[in-house]
Amino acid sequence: PAPVADGFAAIEDADWTGEPRTLTLEGAIVDSRTMTVDPDHFYETPEFVTADQTLELSGVVFTAIFNPQDKRKNWYDIITAFVWAFRDNPDATLVLKLVHFERDLSCWMMLQEMRKLYPYSCRIVVIHGFLSTESFHDLLRATAFTVNAAHAEGQCLPLMEYMAAGKPAIAPNHTAMADYITDDSAFPVSSSIELAAWPQDPRQVFRCVRYRIKWDTLRDAYRAAFDVATNDLPRYRQMSQAARQAQLGNCSDAVTLERLRAFLAQLP
C-alpha cells in the first residue's frame, strides 16, 4: 500500500466533535437543502457553477470520495442506503466528494439520484472541484465517518487516508479493504461474489467476479454508526483510535520501509 498514514495521522484538530464546521472552497456544490430535488423537476438541468463557496456542515457527517464514472465505486448504494436509513432524520448528512473532470455530467448524475429518492429530511451535499489542502482537511475535520460500498478495490486511498486521520469507516471487507477493515475500526458491510466483466472489456463478457454489496447491511451500518456517534462517544473514540492504528500498521512509512528492506534483502 502507498505510505499515506503518517501524514494524515498528523493532521491537527482532526477529531470529530459534533460541532458545526464551515468550509471555504472553490468548486461546484449540489445541496439537497438549497437545490430543487423534487422529482417533478427531474428533467430540469440547473446550471452548475464553479466558484468560491462557503459550506457549513453539521450533525453526523458521512463522507465518500470517488470517481462517479468508475463503476466499481457503487455510489448508487451509498446514496440510496443513506436515504433509507435517515429519511426522517435532519441531523444526518452525506457528503459526496467527486473526483472527475466533467463537472456538469458528474453533478447531474448525482442530482438525478437525489431526485429519485425525494422526499427526505436528511441532507446530501455533492462537491465537485479540486480542493486545496486546507479545504480538504476541513472536510475531513467535519466528517464523522468515511463510507465505501465498492465492488472491488486495489487500495482505496481516500478510505485509508480518512481512517489514518481517525475516521471510522463504513465499508465492506473484501479485496484490498480486507487488509484493514475490522469490527474495531469500522462497521463492516457484507458482500458476496457475483459474475462481472473487466471494466476495460468493450464486449462486457462475464470473465471475472466482483463483490455484490448486501444493501440492507449498508443501511444498517449507517444507522449503527449514527447511534454510536450520538449516544456512545467513548466507543466512537475507541473506533477512531483503532482506525488510526489499523492504517499505521498497514500503510505507514515504517511498515513500508520494513517491507522494502525485506524485498531488497532477497536480491543477490
Describe this protein's structure.
By secondary structure, the protein is α/β, with parallel strands linked by helices. The chain is 36% helix and 24% strand. The chain has helices at 5-9, 75-86, 103-116, 133-142, 157-164, 215-231, 233-251, 253-264, and strands at 21-31, 51-57, 60-66, 92-98, 123-128, 145-147, 169-172, 186-189, 191-197, 206-213. Strands 2-1-5-4-3-6-7-8 form an 8-stranded mixed beta sheet, with helices on both faces. A two-stranded antiparallel sheet has the order 9-10. β4 (92-98), α3 and β5 form a beta-alpha-beta unit. The longest helix is centred in the C-terminal third of the chain and has 19 residues, at 233-251. It is globular and about 70 Å long. The mean pLDDT is 95.
Q: In short, what is this structure?
A:
This protein has 268 residues and is of the alpha/beta class. It contains eight helices and ten strands.
Topology (elements, then pairings):
Elements: H1 5-9, E1 21-31, E2 51-57, E3 60-66, H2 75-86, E4 92-98, H3 103-116, E5 123-128, H4 133-142, E6 145-147, H5 157-164, E7 169-172, E8 186-189, E9 191-197, E10 206-213, H6 215-231, H7 233-251, H8 253-264
Parallel strand pairs: 3-4, 3-6, 4-5, 6-7, 7-8
Antiparallel strand pairs: 1-2, 1-5, 9-10
Helix pairs in contact: 2-6, 5-7, 7-8
From the structure above, extract its key features.
globular, 24% strand, eight-stranded mixed beta sheet, alpha/beta, single chain, 268 residues, two-stranded antiparallel ribbon
Structural class: alpha/beta
If helices are DSSP runs of H or I spanning 4 or more residues, what is the number of helices?
Answer: 8
Describe the strand arrangement of the main beta sheet, using strand numbers: 2-1-5-4-3-6-7-8
Overall 3D form:
globular
- β-strand number: 10
> What is the beta-strand fraction?
15-25%
Low-confidence segments, given as residue ranges, are none
- Report Rg: 19 Å
Instruction: Provide the succession of SSEs.
Output: HEEEHEHEHEHEEEEHHH
